[in-house]
Write a structure and sequence with these properties.
The protein has about 325 residues and is α/β, with parallel strands linked by helices. It is built from twelve helices and eight strands.
Length: about 325
């Protein structure tokens, strides 16, 4: 599949000339960063966006520009959603189902990264519970609102290379907790969820994919790079290591560049090209060979696209949330 877009492309460049009037889209995590930019560019092109967030007051402040850019016929509304609480997820899903208005696209954008060890309201390890299980329940509870031709985009990360999912100990009850290991597990789960959701729904014309937005300085890194400039300092250190090892360099993206792959995979790319795959820099990523684990490298680890692993995660997730889909 040819493409004129790459790592430097922005949301507005990807959607240039695209008319989204009449399209209804759900975006989670619209209180900061990528979620806000994703919602902004979609409404600017005429879409009706439902933005979900845990803190509605914060989201209201953060989306002032989103509402301003909706002046050309787009629309924006907020929905309350705390992915770390299954009760909140159920309430949000029930409210959306009660409206009975279909979605053309769901972008599961919200998440946490490398947080200290903790648990969600329901006792799940924080990152797995928030990043995966919350979205797993939300999307499956409203799946009937996805009409033929619609898509699901799960935001994953190159951080999936840190770890495969652990179906025997998802809550770190027997494993020593490591923040980035837990993050890796949750991001691998995001990909595997897309793989199995795509398998289950593609016959009905609904496709799913996972995307890596790139390295971006947003609130997501607050547990790791709290000081201003800390993330760029780490990138400089990595690039010094890359240079010494003869590997390519790594550059941070702007927020519009980071959100570009989400809208590309959800709207612009051919559905058959991205369905069941993992995308980065506005293209489908290559399957990694060997033991390439560095975040400076492109590609996706084979375990994240393993269909049997995806089925097993689905079954484990149903067991954990207490619902069958």
């Amino acid at each position: 599949m040819s493409s004129t877009f790459d790592a430097t492309s922005t949301t507005d460049e990807v959607l240039a000339g695209v008319d989204l009037h009449g399209r209804r889209i759900l975006v989670t995590g619209v209180s900061a960063g990528l979620g806000v930019e994703t919602a902004r560019t979609l409404v600017a092109h005429g879409a009706h966006v439902v933005g979900a967030a845990r803190d509605l007051a914060k989201a209201e402040r953060a989306t002032a520009q989103v509402r301003a850019d909706a002046a050309n016929g787009g629309a924006f509304e907020l929905a309350e959603l705390d992915l770390a609480s299954l009760a909140s997820v159920r309430a949000c899903a029930d409210a959306l189902m009660a409206k009975a208005k279909p979605f053309d696209l769901i972008i599961a954008n919200a998440g946490v990264m490398a947080s200290p060890f903790g648990h969600t309201t329901d006792g799940f390890e924080t990152q797995f519970g928030t990043n995966h299980l919350g979205h797993f329940m939300l999307v499956n509870r409203i799946a009937s609102l996805l009409a033929p031709g619609s898509r699901l985009v799960n935001l994953s990360s190159s951080g999936h290379r840190f770890a495969d999912v652990d179906l025997d100990d998802p809550n770190f009850e027997h494993t020593e907790y490591a923040p980035f290991m837990a993050y890796g597990r949750s991001k691998t789960a995001n990909i595997l969820f897309a793989v199995e959701f795509d398998r289950r729904h593609k016959a009905d014309g609904v496709r799913a994919t996972a995307v890596h937005p790139g390295g971006i300085e947003t609130e997501l890194g607050r547990h790791v790079y709290a000081e201003p400039g800390a993330l760029q300092k780490r990138v400089d250190e990595l690039n010094a290591e890359n240079l010494a090892a003869g590997r390519p360099g790594f550059s941070l993206k702007s927020i519009p560049q980071g959100a570009a792959t989400s809208v590309w995979a959800g709207i612009v790319a051919p559905a058959d090209a991205v369905g069941g795959h993992y995308c980065e820099d506005c293209h489908v990523a290559q399957l990694l060979q060997g033991d390439a684990a560095s975040l400076t490298l492109e590609g996706v680890r084979p375990y994240a696209l393993d269909p049997d692993r995806a089925k097993a995660l689905w079954a484990k997730s149903e067991e954990m949330v207490g619902e069958r889909f």
